[in-house]
């Protein structure tokens, strides 16, 4: 079935409008004609509906044709195909109209079905071309913005590597040199202290590299994530097993309240997120405090995994900057633990890759709660 061509005719003369109707009826176009007897009515219709082209009378009683043409071509109307119907024979007038944005001018005296159909087809094709051009422009701008963001992330990543990764390695070099001299002096106590410091610096460097590589890989990986129904309690128990020794040494309890909750997620990604969040909570929870991993199923199908702690909490300003790599701030834990500042960024990105979102609630001195919200993807 031929595509309908939607045409707006703005002409105050009923005889001229009738002539246009006759020409359209005799043409091979499939058309829908909307008529306006004056400029005000025509502009109102152009602002309300989408038209493939506008047939505009050059001489209207209530407005100048150039003003109406400009209004039709303005963003509010969004018309980009206007044909002028004129009784004028002055070529300068026709040229001025074309310069003002009209696609063509048609003589009322010589109006015929084939000529009108040809002009309307051209106008419709131009409208489609301009729409495609605008879409391509928007896509190019979006890609340009994405590239700019990628370049900023790359620069920040390099600055992290240059600054943060250099520090622990410099410490390792300095401490290992001191360790060599201490060993030569045969002082076991000092050797043990230096060796412990070297180990801590190496562990810090390794943790930073792991976070950097995981985060960078996630930025480059644009493939689809395959999700499946997974047992949250089992993943939470397994993922946090590596943290329990640290929690026990610090005197922090870790408990679970997940029941038999199932959620549609990526098993490894969810495990990584829970491991990072629990590790972060241990870092900021003092001895005697506790961490709870709990699940909550809403009546609307939402499934929420909460990681709550009774730690030191955060200010609203700190929360606002949590997921901004350009404002990455590392804060020592309650026992002086160090971090890379990238763990929560990694968690946020992993959660979003699974189609969920991460929420944070915290108050200074009252602890922190991270919530992973899965919409309509769960069952219990």
From TrEMBL:
Q: Pfam families in the record, alphabetically?
A: HATPase_c, HisKA, Response_reg
Catalytic reaction annotation:
ATP + protein L-histidine = ADP + protein N-phospho-L-histidine
Q: Name one GO molecular function term.
A: histidine phosphotransfer kinase activity
Histidine kinase domain location, by residue? 160-378
Q: Which GO terms describe its cellular component?
A: plasma membrane
- Domain (Response regulatory) ranges: 6-123
Question: Which residues carry the post-translational modification 4-aspartylphosphate, per the record?
Answer: 57
Name the EC number(s).
2.7.13.3
The UniProt keywords, alphabetically, are: Coiled coil, Kinase, Phosphoprotein, Transferase
Alphabetical list of SMART domains matching this protein: HATPase_c (SM00387), HisKA (SM00388), REC (SM00448)
- Taking the record's annotation, the residue ranges forming a coiled coil are 123-153
Q: Which PROSITE patterns does the record cross-reference, listed alphabetically?
A: HIS_KIN, RESPONSE_REGULATORY
Q: Which residues form the signal peptide?
A: none
Output the PANTHER family linked to this UniProt entry.
OSMOSENSING HISTIDINE PROTEIN KINASE SLN1, TWO-COMPONENT HISTIDINE PROTEIN KINASE
Protein name listed in UniProt? histidine kinase
